[in-house]
Amino acid sequence: MRVLVVGAGALGTVIASKLTNAGIDTVCVDSNAAHAAACRNPGALVELPDGSTMTTSLQVIASVDQVREPYDYALITLKAPAVPSVVTALRDSGLVENYVSLGNGLIQEVIAGVVGAGRLLVGTVSWGATFIAAGHVRQTTLAPFAVGEWRYGSNSDRLVRLIDLLSVVAPAHSTDNIVGQVWSKLLLNSSLSGLGTIAGADYATAVGTAGGRQLAVGMWTEGLRVAEAMGLSLDEVAGIRPERIDVDGPGGLSAASKELDALLEALGATKASMLQDLERGVPTEVDVINGAVVSAGADNDVPTPLNQRCAEIIRQCEKGTVRPGLGNLSFFDDLLSATVE
Q: Which residues of 130-166 are buried (b: 16+ CB within 10 A; e: fewer)?
């Protein structure tokens, strides 16, 4: 089996390192020259959640234009803004049999539109990773992959082989409801990643601030209402049922908070990928995360004021007119009083 990891950021570097250490022929594509050079020699340094480290010399090329050999799977871990052009070039090479979307947010239909839904598998990644420096990343949390066919079948041979492949990296399981899984992960990203980005903090710290818990539960609930309006059946994410984080449900904020705390036990140390983007001065994926909730809400007549405000603040952070910080939570005071009891 030959694997192409397209995008060797924090997530891609962890994946490529573990696959390489398992003896799987793995090549990374990444345009960050300093990071690529360090990953080749002396090798990618990965800090693991148990405190141990591993250093692995990776095969890294600068562009998909340099792809010369066929690959069984291309694992797409790119940031959303780069996906269309890179995946198009990769498709035109004719050297990839199966494409696997592992990115955040609603990016799957974009990839399917390029390569065809019949060649696409989709996975969600609930564990976190942080880019420390060139050639140095940290896996911050432990959680599984959930993977499935985007539009065709549920137990295909290629899906079974993909699960075996990803299980080298982290526990992996299949789902025949990958659309529901993607939306469940979107609720997690839009609430906790959105909150952590504007707060400039990991998930647990952001939720632990005054107003942070109400904001996280409120954004999650907005996304939940949108998914319901779309008629989606949501899938379990990171060990919890997403319907249980619902400020409008039985028990209100108190019951929703207990479910949120269970989620934070596993993922609280995660640093949002959008926050890492801001720190590196590159565009975030807000349009396919909080922005996607807002767009879908508008299409289904569901108000999403908290997600809309969050997206606006992140875009201001991209422009440099606002800096991530805990003080940004005060921008939601008027909305929280109206949406969360």
A: bbeeebbbbbbbebbbbbbbbeeeeeeebbeebbebb
Residue 273 in tokens: 């990928």
Burial grade of 169 (CB within 10 A; 0-12, 13-18, 19 or more): buried
Type of residue at 321: T
**To which residue do tokens 């494409």 refer?**
99
- Cβ atoms of 141 and 11 closer than 8 Å: no
Torsion angle in degrees (nearest 10) through CA of 234, 235, 238, 241: 60
Give CA–CA dist 258/64, Å, rounded.
Answer: 45
pTM of the model: 0.92
pLDDT tens digits, 58-70: 999 999 999 999 9
Strand, helix or coil at 42? helix
C-beta atoms surrounding 62 within 10 Å: 12
**Residues in a beta bridge with 149:** 121
Q: C-alpha dihedral over 98, 99, 100, 105, to 10 degrees?
A: -160
pLDDT number for residue 210: 79
